[in-house]
Amino acid sequence: MTRTRRSxxxxxxxxxxxxxxxxxxxxxxxxxxxxxxxxxxVPYSMDTSNQAGWWxxxxxxDGSTYVIFNAPAASENLHQVHVARQDPSGEWTTGCLQxxxxxxxxxxxxxxxxxxxxxxxxxxxxxxxxxxxNDGWRYFRSxxxxxxxxxxxxxxxxxxxxxxxxYPVTATAPRGGDVYLMARVNMPGVGHTGRLYRWSVEERxxxxxxxxxxGHVETGYVPYPDDLEVDDRGHVHILWEWARGxxxxxxxxxxxLVYRPAEDRFVGIDGRDVxxxxxxxxxxxxxxxxxxxxxxxxxxxxNHTPNLAGIAYRYQPPGEAAFEVRWAAWDGQQxxxxxxxxxxxxxxxxxxxxxxxxxxxxxxIKHPSxxxxxxxxxxxxxxxxxxxxxxxDRSADWQPRLLGGAPGTERLAATTRVDGTDxxxxxxxxxxxxxxxxxxxxxxxxxxxxxxxxxxxxADQVRIESTNSGTDAATGRKNWAFGxxxxxxxxxxxxxxxECAVDGNxxxxxxxxxxxxSDPEPTLTMAFEEPIQVDEVHxxxxxxxxxxxxxxxxxxxxxxxxxxREAARVSGNDANPAVVRVDDLAFTGExxxxxxxxxxxxxxxxxxEVEVYSRDDAPALDMSLSANPPHLLFAGDSTDVEMTLTxxxxxxxxxxVEFQAPDGWTIEPAEGSFGLAPNESTSMPVTVTSATGAxxxxxxxxxxxxxxxxxxxxALPVRDGIVYSGDGAPYYTEDGxxxxxxxxxxxxxTTRYTQGGTGASATWTPELSQAGRYQVYAWYPAAPTNTxxxxxxVRHAGGTAHLxxxxxxxxxxxxxxGEWEFDEGSxxxxxxxxxxxxxxxxxxxxxxxxWSDRREPxxxxxxx
Length: 864
Description:
mainly beta, eight-stranded antiparallel β-sheet, seven-stranded antiparallel β-sheet
């Protein structure tokens, strides 16, 4: 039985969410990996008000991607509206929407209402509708095609000047390039109506096409625009929902209608004429007629044809508090509705759907609720299914999977390129995090599965999927904190109570307890179902995946004989989670965590999970292995391995530890003896040397204490000269603004990128065991935005070499940089510096000795 709990847990927390359970690794290796998000931040500030579920904030034109967003204004509770453009080389430019006087227009924050929608007409002019909540027209148009710096006020060009406008949704006709606009318009004496407008590219004018819903004063129903699409025949597909009585966050009767401009008529899904304006009583328009709540619907056409693939929408069944994701499709005679994800989850009002060739994708966001029984992880999800014009295969289920997305993502939009690649707009307002700015991201998700081979993954590296049963899946130990009754000395708001810290959710920092700033020494107290001897306490604090705002100083108290006594104190913690050993052997029914010295985190305690483990299921001996470095660069190299052994039994123990390595490997010394008092620890260093002919794969080192039935394993890869960007210092270091990319690197490894011209650098530094002549190769992933002038600098024994590499032409292979003499040790290095335009990609560098008979890497060997 493996006892490497701490080392496993550290690896688990750092791995990608795309890794599978050990039982499915063989199957995953045999199948193409599902495409993953390539996420890049928009390099401009976003305002916290940039949140909506109905908008169209994303457009593609002439190879460039355009995003529109609320940006911070100089005054609190105000925002500007900016448009950013990323050209095909990856470079960004931005501009604000300008008033007639040339200043940046500013509007008040109004989350969910004052949001922008963008369209680009067939001549390349940008049209922006922004920040209207029952306001007059706020419409801006660029003075030049494709320009984000000449977008000026043209509100006077719109009809219905007397109306109050909300929820503008835009679409561009694939043929001709006319722009359509749907909005809810409140007309004096009439009330809220649904209206459709068109910008004629030929005439360069706006006109109202139709009033498709009557005023709510007459009918008692208020329209809420959802989506607008134009097919390749010029038909306009309209999607909306209704609120009863007056405006409301609860809407019903999801509705769909098609406008055929050339014939000046409206038709239903069955192709029959429909008289407008329509009302919820017109059954032919309703794709969701049932009694539940409909929100944030999106439609998808089959490859831009007039055929509707289906409608995706959030749905709250009658009597339920949470939403699910549904899909409605027309089978030729009736609407057929399917449940895509019935997780009954907490989610944001954001959903999107795309279709290419025969595959439909539904994007949505779901966040776990702060309850112990909640088992769903998540941020951005995608569900896929085979959907064509003649067949929506109802025998097949939708296949949801977690994409992950950017931290704090709450809103999304998407569009599809000609090759089927989806472009996603991901807004992360991060309202719960006062120490971080909101952020906007653009991501791409291809429809071509990755063919990159999976990197060998050992059993103790596999990500463990928690079932939230209160049992640690890696060790089988019970987490006594899971679902325990808790009390806290203070809570920042009603959604940050103590129950969030014991709900089993250690993967999401939005499920957490947060104290108030006025509480100088916040406490979280939990009661166990029976008295236990506490063995370990794991504290997840700050923000997941890093050490931002984590607890540096805290104490663990136990209630013994009616009095609190301090059982452990942590000072200068730099780990997340912090694993705290408790040596107090007393039985206790309550445990208290005290946060101390919170000045460095703005006087707030942020804890998103606490786990407590007892001694009754702890091993008598706790054994772990660690290596420095954690790999062997070449076959025949050595590394230092340290075995740590702790006596948790409460009684003195002694014995012998035996080490085992693969055939041809050596371990010195091969065994050692120990004698430990209760709670005492010891370390035993050994040197591990691989076989001279060891293959480039991952091997297992094993340590055993046979008399106590305890063992630990260590995965030790032989790299064949490869240094990865994921290795960290001192082997890989960065200077400047680098970020993680969703693109897969060599053997499934992670990759990094930076924008062009930033001056940022990435350096790979090997620890060479021998001086000699080496060929040096670089590996980086392919992307259309890659730079064509990546500047590499190779520092070798004879000096420094400078090279320029086209990362578009030579990607996804080992590219030979050159051959040089290198000294033993870490004096040699390879550095990539961002000077030219385009994204600079960093993944792996390979040092191939030229005096051995090792296999040469296959790939492009043309040096530049």
